[in-house]
Structure formats: structure tokens, C-alpha cells
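Backbones bend. Our protein:
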Amino acid sequence: MSPEEWTYLVVLLISIPIGFLFKKAGPGLKRWGAAAVGLGLTLFTCGPHTLHSLITILGTWALIQAQPCSCHALALAWTFSYLLFFRALSLLGLPTPTPFTNAVQLLLTLKLVSLASEVQDLHLAQRKEMASGFSKGPTLGLLPDVPSLMETLSYSYCYVGIMTGPFFRYRTYLDWLEQPFPGAVPSLRPLLRRAWPAPLFGLLFLLPSHLFPLEAVREDAFYARPLPARLFYMIPVFFAFRMRFYVAWIAAECGCIAAGFGAYPVAAKARAGGGPTLQCPPPSSPEKAASLEYDYETIRNINCYGTDFCVRVRDGMRYWNMTVQWWLAQYIYKSAPAHSYVL
């Protein structure tokens, strides 16, 4: 394993006990404590390159304040334009960011585009409410108000999934902060159920990585081999690639589960990335909260069995990086000017 992979693993493992500490905390401690941990991790791994994330956040927040009715498209253009600039830093003769900065920037781009879309939905819902004589429509998934700059910063630098995902909406983040009875939400048993395959996937990553190292394909001797041998070499290399992501994403999900992040009643029928699809009233007492059955589908990022044993490519894409697949469907495909099958 490379030094970067060891750092990722340590960050993911540390997030699990930190999650248990934050689970029963109040909204203020959750918000600012989680942001402080996330910012600390970002500064430790990215150093001065943390400035890129700050510029992206400030630019998006300014667009949201200036044009709330059309901030989704503006934020999409701004964040991806800055991401293009960020990727071209070495070509421009500027200092090259660390790999960790790249990971933070990618996840931040998803979160800020989502935040802008949620603010736009809130603005449009308020306009419809005024036009209909203040008769309230459905509020599932809507924000209560436009986040302030500090609230935007706390969401952006929340340690949960800051480098590896899963992606989550600002509404999901708010629901975690305002969980009525967090002590009644199960964490340990769901965490153990989710974590048990990770050691096996770790061994399945180390073994082919040792026998079929990726570095070998960069050597001239590799291309002297027959074509069938080179094609065969792809199989264990991509197998190790999948196992590595399985371990990382399972560990990231366990960090969320430890904090009770993304927990919703099963009756809410939550979707990966999007959260609840049905209105589910919050419990009125600890006893009622404890009697509910919860799941963590909102922060589920990988279906390992479905990815490896699916029949269709479409299903494989649906089971891989599930929260980002939801983000793409919600904020790119559905908002495209032409709903082309090819697109």
C-alpha cells in the first residue's frame, strides 16, 4: 500500500470512534465540532491547498445570495469551471495540489451543486406558496431557510465523507443535527453488520496487488509479453481496484453509522444520496423513537454483491458509488436541456 492509501485508511478508521462521540451531542456541538474535525483533517492532508476549497465555497455562497432563483446552473458552472482550473494548475506552472486536495475538491463540488439546487427549490416553493395565497404545498426534502455563510462552511467541512464520500445533501446534514432522540437510533449493530466483509475484501485486495502489481504495466518488459497475457493481467488488476474501493466505502459508511448520520425510519423509504421519499413524522418520545426500525440507505455507497454479479452494465453502474449516481441523475440528467437517451 502507498503512503496515500495508508493515510486514507487511517482517516476512515478514525472517523468511526469520532462518530460515536458526536452521535448523542447537541446540534451546536455536532455542527461546529464536526466542521472543526473536517477542517483539521483538510489542513493536515492538504496544507495551503485548502485555499482552493475555501474559494469554491465562497464563490458558491455568493452566487446563492445573488441569484437564488437560478443558482443551481450558476453553481454548476462555477464549481466545474474551478475544478477545470484546479486540474490544470500544473500546466499553468502553479503548485500541484496533493491527492487529498483533489478528493476534497471533488466531494465539495458535489455538495455545493446540491446545496445550490436545494436553495433554488426552496425559493421556487416560496414563490408558489405566495402565488397560491400562502397555502403550503408538500415540504418533503425542502430546507427551512437559506443557509448562512457559516452554516455553508460547516456543511462543506463536515468530517463525514470529506475525502471518500458518501455524498449527502444539506437536508440530510440538517436532519442529523436535529435528530430528536439520537440515543434511540441504533449504531453498533448496523455498523457490525456493514463492516464484517471489509477484512475479507482487504485480504482480497492485498493478495492480487502483491502477485500482480499495477506498477508492472508501466515497465517496457510488460509490453514484450503476448497480447493474451496482457489482457489476462487486467483481470486481477481491476479485481484489486474494486476490492480497494469496497474497503474504503464500507469504512466510510461505518463512520456515518457510528454517528447516526443518515439514519431514517424504514417507513421513509430512503434512497442512497437523496434521503427519504415518503413523509415520516418525527417520534414524539424516546420510547416511540426506540420502537421504530431504522436503516442507513441514505449513505449507502456500494452494493458489493450487485456490482460483482450483476448481468447488465446499467445495474453495475447503479450499484457502484450509489450516492454519486443519484447526484448525477438528480442534478445533471434531469436538469439537462434535452433529455437525450445518449446523454
In short: The longest helix spans residues 99-131.
